[in-house]
Amino acid sequence: MPTVQLKNYTCNYEFLNSGKDRTIIFSNSLGTDYSMWNKVVDIIKSDFNIILHDTRGHGKSTNSQKELTIEELGEDIIELLHTLKIEGKITFCGLSMGGLIGQYLGINHSHIFDKIILANTASKIGSTDSWNTRIETVMANGLSSILTGTAERWFTPNFQANHADEVNAILEKFAANDLAGYCASCAAVRDGDYRYQIDKINIPVLVITGSEDLVTTVDDGRFMKTKITVSKLEVLEAAHLSAVEQAEEFAKNILSF
Prior knowledge:
By secondary structure, this protein is of the alpha/beta class. 43% of the residues lie in helices and 18% in strands. The chain has helices spanning 38-44, 70-83, 97-108, 128-141, 147-154, 157-162, 164-175, 179-191, 218-227, 242-245, 247-256; strands at 3-5, 10-16, 22-27, 49-53, 89-95, 115-119, 205-210, 231-236. α1 crosses α11 (247-256). The protein starts with a strand and ends with a helix.
Protein backbone atom coordinates (compact mmCIF):
# COMPACT_ATOMS: atom_id res chain seq x y z
CA MET A 1 0.00 0.00 0.00
CA PRO A 2 1.24 3.53 -0.68
CA THR A 3 2.53 5.88 1.97
CA VAL A 4 2.76 9.66 1.99
CA GLN A 5 5.01 11.82 4.13
CA LEU A 6 2.90 14.33 6.01
CA LYS A 7 4.16 17.06 8.33
CA ASN A 8 4.32 14.94 11.46
CA TYR A 9 4.35 11.33 10.32
CA THR A 10 4.35 8.86 7.45
CA CYS A 11 0.76 7.92 6.59
CA ASN A 12 -0.15 4.50 5.24
CA TYR A 13 -3.22 4.82 3.04
CA GLU A 14 -5.19 3.45 0.11
CA PHE A 15 -7.18 5.53 -2.37
CA LEU A 16 -9.83 3.68 -4.34
CA ASN A 17 -10.72 6.17 -7.07
CA SER A 18 -13.72 5.05 -9.08
CA GLY A 19 -14.37 8.46 -10.61
CA LYS A 20 -17.45 9.20 -8.51
CA ASP A 21 -18.53 12.69 -7.45
CA ARG A 22 -18.41 11.76 -3.76
CA THR A 23 -15.44 10.60 -1.68
CA ILE A 24 -15.70 8.92 1.70
CA ILE A 25 -12.76 8.79 4.08
CA PHE A 26 -12.75 6.23 6.89
CA SER A 27 -11.05 6.58 10.28
CA ASN A 28 -10.30 3.50 12.39
CA SER A 29 -10.95 2.84 16.05
CA LEU A 30 -8.27 2.74 18.71
CA GLY A 31 -6.13 -0.38 18.32
CA THR A 32 -7.17 -1.30 14.77
CA ASP A 33 -5.94 -0.45 11.29
CA TYR A 34 -7.89 0.46 8.19
CA SER A 35 -8.61 -3.19 7.40
CA MET A 36 -11.44 -2.97 9.97
CA TRP A 37 -13.47 -1.35 7.18
CA ASN A 38 -12.89 -4.08 4.57
CA LYS A 39 -16.35 -5.65 4.68
CA VAL A 40 -18.11 -2.27 4.52
CA VAL A 41 -15.88 -1.11 1.68
CA ASP A 42 -16.61 -4.23 -0.35
CA ILE A 43 -20.31 -3.32 -0.27
CA ILE A 44 -20.08 0.41 -1.05
CA LYS A 45 -16.96 0.65 -3.24
CA SER A 46 -18.94 1.05 -6.47
CA ASP A 47 -20.77 4.09 -5.05
CA PHE A 48 -17.89 6.21 -3.74
CA ASN A 49 -14.27 7.10 -4.14
CA ILE A 50 -12.81 5.69 -0.93
CA ILE A 51 -9.85 6.75 1.19
CA LEU A 52 -8.60 4.33 3.82
CA HIS A 53 -5.75 5.24 6.11
CA ASP A 54 -4.09 4.07 9.31
CA THR A 55 -4.42 6.70 12.02
CA ARG A 56 -1.09 7.94 13.29
CA GLY A 57 0.60 5.29 15.43
CA HIS A 58 -1.61 2.49 14.08
CA GLY A 59 -1.00 -0.15 11.44
CA LYS A 60 1.80 1.01 9.17
CA SER A 61 1.48 4.73 9.96
CA THR A 62 4.29 6.08 12.10
CA ASN A 63 4.26 8.15 15.27
CA SER A 64 7.00 9.95 17.16
CA GLN A 65 5.03 11.55 20.01
CA LYS A 66 4.46 10.29 23.55
CA GLU A 67 0.96 11.74 23.57
CA LEU A 68 -1.38 12.78 20.78
CA THR A 69 -4.54 14.87 20.72
CA ILE A 70 -7.76 14.48 18.77
CA GLU A 71 -7.07 17.91 17.30
CA GLU A 72 -3.75 16.69 15.89
CA LEU A 73 -5.37 13.55 14.47
CA GLY A 74 -8.11 15.67 12.93
CA GLU A 75 -5.58 17.96 11.29
CA ASP A 76 -3.87 14.84 9.92
CA ILE A 77 -7.10 14.14 8.02
CA ILE A 78 -7.19 17.64 6.59
CA GLU A 79 -3.56 17.43 5.52
CA LEU A 80 -4.08 14.02 3.90
CA LEU A 81 -7.06 15.27 1.89
CA HIS A 82 -5.08 18.33 0.81
CA THR A 83 -2.04 16.25 -0.14
CA LEU A 84 -4.15 13.84 -2.20
CA LYS A 85 -5.92 16.84 -3.78
CA ILE A 86 -9.37 15.57 -2.88
CA GLU A 87 -12.15 17.95 -3.88
CA GLY A 88 -15.90 17.85 -4.29
CA LYS A 89 -18.33 16.17 -1.95
CA ILE A 90 -16.54 14.53 0.98
CA THR A 91 -18.07 12.34 3.69
CA PHE A 92 -16.11 11.47 6.82
CA CYS A 93 -16.84 8.21 8.64
CA GLY A 94 -15.12 7.43 11.93
CA LEU A 95 -15.71 4.80 14.59
CA SER A 96 -14.88 5.22 18.30
CA MET A 97 -11.64 7.24 18.31
CA GLY A 98 -12.43 7.95 14.67
CA GLY A 99 -15.79 9.30 15.81
CA LEU A 100 -14.07 11.73 18.17
CA ILE A 101 -11.98 12.87 15.21
CA GLY A 102 -15.19 13.29 13.24
CA GLN A 103 -16.66 15.52 15.93
CA TYR A 104 -13.54 17.70 15.85
CA LEU A 105 -13.78 17.94 12.06
CA GLY A 106 -17.48 18.79 12.15
CA ILE A 107 -16.89 21.54 14.67
CA ASN A 108 -13.81 23.05 13.04
CA HIS A 109 -13.84 22.08 9.34
CA SER A 110 -17.48 21.84 8.29
CA HIS A 111 -16.66 23.73 5.09
CA ILE A 112 -14.63 20.74 3.87
CA PHE A 113 -17.18 18.01 4.58
CA ASP A 114 -20.82 17.93 3.62
CA LYS A 115 -21.71 14.87 5.72
CA ILE A 116 -20.21 13.12 8.75
CA ILE A 117 -20.85 9.65 10.16
CA LEU A 118 -20.11 9.14 13.86
CA ALA A 119 -20.13 5.46 14.76
CA ASN A 120 -19.86 3.82 18.18
CA THR A 121 -18.48 6.93 19.76
CA ALA A 122 -19.32 9.57 22.36
CA SER A 123 -18.53 13.20 22.94
CA LYS A 124 -16.53 12.03 25.97
CA ILE A 125 -15.31 8.42 26.10
CA GLY A 126 -14.42 7.03 29.51
CA SER A 127 -12.71 8.82 32.38
CA THR A 128 -9.22 10.19 32.88
CA ASP A 129 -8.52 7.56 35.54
CA SER A 130 -9.67 4.66 33.37
CA TRP A 131 -7.47 5.74 30.47
CA ASN A 132 -4.45 6.32 32.70
CA THR A 133 -4.96 2.84 34.14
CA ARG A 134 -5.16 1.41 30.62
CA ILE A 135 -1.91 3.12 29.65
CA GLU A 136 -0.13 1.92 32.79
CA THR A 137 -1.38 -1.64 32.29
CA VAL A 138 -0.26 -2.03 28.70
CA MET A 139 3.05 -0.27 29.30
CA ALA A 140 3.79 -2.76 32.07
CA ASN A 141 2.33 -5.92 30.54
CA GLY A 142 1.93 -5.37 26.82
CA LEU A 143 -1.16 -5.19 24.63
CA SER A 144 -1.70 -8.95 24.83
CA SER A 145 -2.60 -8.49 28.51
CA ILE A 146 -5.92 -6.82 27.60
CA LEU A 147 -6.99 -9.04 24.69
CA THR A 148 -9.79 -10.79 26.58
CA GLY A 149 -11.34 -7.54 27.75
CA THR A 150 -10.95 -6.02 24.30
CA ALA A 151 -12.79 -8.92 22.69
CA GLU A 152 -15.62 -8.61 25.21
CA ARG A 153 -15.98 -4.89 24.55
CA TRP A 154 -15.70 -5.11 20.78
CA PHE A 155 -17.94 -8.08 19.96
CA THR A 156 -21.11 -9.71 21.24
CA PRO A 157 -20.75 -13.28 22.59
CA ASN A 158 -22.71 -14.56 19.60
CA PHE A 159 -20.34 -12.96 17.10
CA GLN A 160 -17.31 -14.24 18.98
CA ALA A 161 -18.70 -17.76 18.93
CA ASN A 162 -19.72 -17.79 15.26
CA HIS A 163 -16.90 -15.72 13.75
CA ALA A 164 -13.92 -16.83 15.82
CA ASP A 165 -11.44 -16.63 12.92
CA GLU A 166 -12.42 -13.05 12.14
CA VAL A 167 -12.29 -12.01 15.78
CA ASN A 168 -8.88 -13.64 16.26
CA ALA A 169 -7.47 -11.91 13.17
CA ILE A 170 -8.55 -8.51 14.50
CA LEU A 171 -7.15 -9.26 17.96
CA GLU A 172 -3.84 -10.37 16.44
CA LYS A 173 -3.56 -6.99 14.72
CA PHE A 174 -4.47 -5.29 17.99
CA ALA A 175 -1.67 -7.12 19.86
CA ALA A 176 0.80 -6.28 17.08
CA ASN A 177 0.20 -2.53 17.38
CA ASP A 178 3.11 -0.28 18.20
CA LEU A 179 2.82 0.06 21.98
CA ALA A 180 3.95 3.68 22.08
CA GLY A 181 1.56 4.61 19.28
CA TYR A 182 -1.33 2.91 21.04
CA CYS A 183 -0.60 4.70 24.33
CA ALA A 184 -0.23 8.05 22.55
CA SER A 185 -3.69 7.55 21.07
CA CYS A 186 -5.10 6.48 24.44
CA ALA A 187 -4.04 9.92 25.68
CA ALA A 188 -5.88 11.53 22.75
CA VAL A 189 -9.11 9.69 23.59
CA ARG A 190 -8.62 10.38 27.30
CA ASP A 191 -8.44 14.13 26.72
CA GLY A 192 -11.00 14.42 23.93
CA ASP A 193 -14.19 16.09 25.14
CA TYR A 194 -16.72 17.68 22.77
CA ARG A 195 -19.79 17.67 25.01
CA TYR A 196 -19.89 21.46 25.09
CA GLN A 197 -18.95 22.09 21.45
CA ILE A 198 -20.80 19.43 19.46
CA ASP A 199 -23.82 21.67 18.99
CA LYS A 200 -21.65 23.79 16.67
CA ILE A 201 -21.78 21.10 13.98
CA ASN A 202 -24.00 22.52 11.22
CA ILE A 203 -23.82 19.78 8.57
CA PRO A 204 -25.83 16.53 8.39
CA VAL A 205 -24.60 13.82 10.75
CA LEU A 206 -25.47 10.13 10.93
CA VAL A 207 -24.94 8.66 14.39
CA ILE A 208 -24.57 4.86 14.49
CA THR A 209 -24.58 2.99 17.80
CA GLY A 210 -24.56 -0.64 18.90
CA SER A 211 -27.36 -1.97 21.08
CA GLU A 212 -24.82 -4.09 23.00
CA ASP A 213 -22.03 -1.50 23.08
CA LEU A 214 -20.99 -1.00 26.69
CA VAL A 215 -18.17 1.41 25.78
CA THR A 216 -20.06 4.06 23.83
CA THR A 217 -23.70 3.40 24.57
CA VAL A 218 -26.96 4.13 22.81
CA ASP A 219 -27.47 6.93 25.34
CA ASP A 220 -24.19 8.46 24.16
CA GLY A 221 -25.57 8.34 20.63
CA ARG A 222 -28.82 9.94 21.71
CA PHE A 223 -26.88 12.75 23.38
CA MET A 224 -25.05 13.53 20.14
CA LYS A 225 -28.23 13.38 18.10
CA THR A 226 -29.93 15.78 20.53
CA LYS A 227 -27.07 18.27 20.30
CA ILE A 228 -26.54 18.21 16.52
CA THR A 229 -29.21 20.14 14.63
CA VAL A 230 -29.39 17.96 11.50
CA SER A 231 -28.78 14.41 12.64
CA LYS A 232 -30.12 10.89 12.47
CA LEU A 233 -29.59 7.99 14.90
CA GLU A 234 -29.40 4.33 13.88
CA VAL A 235 -29.00 1.49 16.39
CA LEU A 236 -27.44 -1.74 15.11
CA GLU A 237 -27.51 -5.09 16.90
CA ALA A 238 -23.82 -5.10 17.74
CA ALA A 239 -21.20 -4.30 20.35
CA HIS A 240 -18.43 -1.74 19.82
CA LEU A 241 -17.11 -2.68 16.37
CA SER A 242 -20.44 -2.48 14.60
CA ALA A 243 -18.78 -1.95 11.21
CA VAL A 244 -17.30 -5.44 11.57
CA GLU A 245 -20.12 -7.21 13.35
CA GLN A 246 -22.95 -5.71 11.24
CA ALA A 247 -21.09 -4.70 8.09
CA GLU A 248 -24.07 -5.10 5.76
CA GLU A 249 -26.39 -2.98 7.90
CA PHE A 250 -23.61 -0.45 8.48
CA ALA A 251 -23.07 -0.15 4.72
CA LYS A 252 -26.80 0.18 4.05
CA ASN A 253 -26.94 3.10 6.46
CA ILE A 254 -24.05 4.79 4.69
CA LEU A 255 -25.74 4.38 1.31
CA SER A 256 -29.11 5.65 2.53
CA PHE A 257 -27.48 8.61 4.29
